[in-house]
Amino acid sequence: MTEGYHVKEYGQPVKRYVQTMDLKDDPELIAEYKRRHSQREAWPEILAGIREVGILDMQIFILGTRLVMIVETPVDFEWDRAMARLATLHRQQEWEDYMTIFQQCAEGATSDEKWQMMERMFYLYEKDKT
After folding, report:
1. How far is CA 126 from CA 16, 50, 118, in A?
2. Torsion angle of the four alpha carbons 108, 112, 113, 118, in this order, in degrees rounded to the nearest 10
């Protein structure tokens, strides 16, 4: 993990969203949650839907029970519109229900209701060039 993670290059300006959610504090549930998100187990319809609404990349990181999701999109991406559309796509709510047993959230919640948007409070500021 100390080697870092490769960042995709898109050939266009992008913006990043960062969200968080907590899992239930149960090591067996967390292991199963991770398994269900593995390349082998993730549902193809869900991956296709994420791309269909305009998301370029999505990554989820975990530390204990805390999840952090990083989403990269084109700069003209409209989050609310995309999430409303995502919620209507084939198998999306079925996937959300399939994941709910692991998550600290209300039963029947959509992805957008489960994941909480994080506020950026710091970045490596550039020296003012004026």
Report:
1. 18, 33, 22
2. 150
Q: What is the pLDDT of residues 20-57, one digit of tens each?
A: 999 999 999 999 999 999 999 999 999 999 999 999 99
Question: Which tokens in the block code for residue 103?
Answer: 């998550």
From the list 66, 72, 53, the residue with the least C-alpha distance to 10 is 72
- Phi, psi for 114 (deg, rounded to 5): -80, -50
What's the CA dihedral at 80, 37, 51, 70 to 10 degrees? 50
Residues β-bridged to residue 18: 70
Residue that the structure tokens 């899992």 belong to: 23
> Per-residue pLDDT tens for 48-75?
999 999 999 999 999 999 999 999 999 9
Asked if 6 and 68 count as a contact pair (C-beta separation under 8 A), the reply is: no
Write down the pLDDT at residue 111.
Answer: 87
- Nearest partner of 23 among 105, 93, 98, judged by Cα: 105
Q: Are 66 and 24 in contact (CB under 8 A)?
A: no
